[in-house]
Amino acid sequence: xxxxxxxxxxxxxxxxERIRADEGPSVIGTGASQPNQxxxxxxxxxxxxxxxxxxxxxxxEDEVKTLADAVDAAAARVDAVLLxxxxxxxxxxxxxxxxxxxxxxxxxxxxxxxxxxxIFSAPAPTDAAVSAARRDSERLAPAKxxxxxxxxxxxxxxxVTGDGGAAAKRGDVPYGGWARDIVADVARRDAVRxxxxxxxAHYEKYAFGDDELRPRAKLxxxxxxxxxxxxxxxxxxxxxxxxxxxxxxAREWVSRRLSFDxxxxxxxxxxxxxxxxxxxxxYDLSGDEMYINKATNLATRLKPAFATASGIPYPIVNLKxxxxxxxxxxxxxxxxxxFGTLSLEFVSLSDRVGDPRWSDLAETPIAKVQSxxxxxxxxxxxxxxxxxxPGKLKWSSGAVSFGAMGDSFFEYLLKTYVMxxxxxxxxxWSDMWDESMRAMLEHLxxxxxxxxxKYVAEWNGRAHHKMDHLACFVGGMLVLGAHGSxxxxxxxxxxxxxxxxxxxxxxSQPTMLAPEVVSFAKYEKENGGTPRGRRMVNQVNHxxxxxxxxxxxxxxxxxxGDPMYREWAWNMFxxxxxxxxxxxxxxxxxxxxxxPPTNDDTMQSFFIAETMKYMYLIFADGxxxxxxxxxxxxxxxxxxxxxxxxxxxPPYKYS
Length: 655
Known about the structure:
Blueprint: H1 2-23, H2 43-82, H3 103-120, H4 127-130, H5 132-138, H6 166-170, H7 186-207, E1 212-214, E2 219-221, H8 229-240, H9 244-257, E3 265-267, H10 268-286, H11 289-302, E4 316-318, E5 324-325, E6 334-335, H12 336-339, H13 343-353, H14 357-371, E7 387-389, E8 394-395, E9 399-400, H15 407-419, H16 427-443, E10 445-447, E11 454-456, E12 458-460, E13 463-464, E14 466-468, H17 474-482, H18 488-507, E15 517-521, E16 535-540, H19 548-560, H20 563-580, E17 581-582, E18 585-586, H21 605-619, E19 630-632, E20 638-640
Antiparallel strand pairs: 1-2, 3-4, 4-5, 6-7, 7-8, 9-12, 10-11, 12-13, 14-15, 15-16, 17-18, 19-20
Helix pairs in contact: 1-2, 2-3, 5-7, 7-21, 8-9, 8-10, 8-21, 10-11, 10-13, 11-13, 13-14, 15-16, 15-17, 17-18, 17-19, 18-19, 19-20, 19-21
């Protein structure tokens, strides 16, 4: 089983470490000769010992690598179902209404249950295995030796994050229409901070340095190339919350241990939003130059993925060899949300280092997509299909989604414009976004059962009345883009109705936690009457600690200042604390319909990066991450707003 394999690998690694320790530094070094070191042994004896120990160490390390690969392969099988993966687009809508789970969904859940059964039936890890992560964190430099920047607090004891709104008042950046004078709910804010500290402490104890924690197995797993995704994803959350000790250890690990010289295939999309976005946000908050060096190194290793005829990158690249490819299921197509969710990070990097080639890489795909926006077949104009053939620049799908495979493309059209200071030169980005929003409201937004609720459907030749939890970000996106638009009232009204529907995805469940996917079924006519909207029905019942609903609630609160949104957030937090928290970490749940539920075995890296950050900011003062000065990437990493005057994406509406 996976647990047994990992324990064996840990044991082998420990044995190799003991061999090195037993023989001492004079015998085992880097492999190079060290003539200046003294030794009580004769030269020939030392050489013989070195050869013997090197052979034993190499054999054990080979075994460790083989077993680690087996662990990652097993984790990947589970991740393909449970994590934020990119499944192939559906060929057609499910028949007989949208309330029924498709055969594909049923098979996926069955596969997940089988994989979890194998994992959870494994024997518990040894004390040596579960303490490996703690030992690794303890080997980092102690706090008294830290010389890098740490969070700075104001006279209220709140961490300072930028100018706190002063930049907009001076006119350095545009004002976004946010509520003023929002005051912290200190007790609830601190409760969220304490919960985050608890979740991160378990990651440090059992999985420090791995991508994510498996709370039930008390081990780590690596689904994102073994780049310490939870550490990098958590940097800015730890900074904003003022968790200086945890931040310091995380920063030390990034500085001393994070290497991109690894012979592993990496998702360009996931690596960009989690790792590149994470280190850039840490730089913008701290000014620590180490992060910029890491960002440049990573971008250089991602660059070979963009070596295509159209500039639309391959989805996968080997960070060591630069070999890039499409995943087998994509059949040579590039998913919209993957190549369309790179601009914030690469544009930010260009600005920070003064090198335009990075922004050019990320803007070229958007310019190419803009040039074929009218060639979408039966898809309503303004909506973009989920995949494209990058060689022929032909759409390879007729499906449209604001959930998986589509969501963050639309988000980044807006946020690239906002991060660039909403300048006239960047209107091409906002033109594309505004056209998309008008089309979405006309063709995909429908009323729900309850007054004041609406949902966002999908498109596959016609409206498909299904909504991923991922699509719940739409409410927040509409609020962010509303100010100054001639559609401001319509956008804010739709945002409130969509956000309310997403909140109902939580309150309608016994656990007060939302399912992964819902559909909306037609009512049968009762007494000759016609109901106003469709009835929400669970379709996929697990909960993966996703942030999209709390994200939209955060934006609605910052826009309106309405205390109702804080109450919604607190209700959600209490449910999360009740059901996610275990003795060894915070984990998602397998079925939101069962109370008490059964936990799965993953603490998602985005749980701390996004879910808990948005939850904290709802209860914080309004000048903590002022939304006129910062823009969140799709992993909730805050990047500074800086006016721009150049882009490769031309305007087509206001020229």
